[in-house]
Q: What sequence folds into this?
């Protein structure tokens, strides 16, 4: 059986902010380090989670379009 977690857009924005605080970086700093493959495994997990949150918010979060653009460059 599949587990589904429901979160409001505000809960997603709060989670996003909390993740950035956890790694001690702004979105821009995290993005720049992702661009040059300079993230620890924990930071990379945060980066991928933020990418997912931004996808779910679909334009509601600052940086979400940028995250997808950088993600496509980082992946390949």
A:
């Amino acid at each position: 059986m599949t587990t589904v977690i429901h979160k409001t857009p505000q809960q997603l924005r709060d989670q996003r902010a909390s993740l950035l605080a956890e790694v001690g970086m702004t979105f821009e700093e995290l993005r720049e380090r992702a661009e040059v493959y300079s993230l620890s495994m924990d930071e990379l997990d945060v980066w991928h989670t933020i990418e997912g949150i931004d996808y779910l918010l679909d334009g509601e979060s600052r940086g979400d379009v940028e995250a997808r653009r950088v993600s496509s460059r980082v992946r390949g």
Summary: DSSP finds four helices and no strands in the chain. Residues 41-57 form the longest helix (17 residues). The chain has a mean pLDDT of 84.
